Amino acid sequence: MTITRTALPRLRRRVTAYTFLAKVLPKVILAEPRRMRMGIWQLQAWKDMDNRPACGTVGCIGGWTEIMTGRRAARVLGLRDQWSKASRELFFGPLTNDLDQGMPLHARRVVAHLKRFATKYRATLRQTVIEPYTP
Question: DSSP string spanning 44-77?
Answer without folding.
Answer: SS---GGG--TT--EE-HHHHHHHHHSS-HHHHT
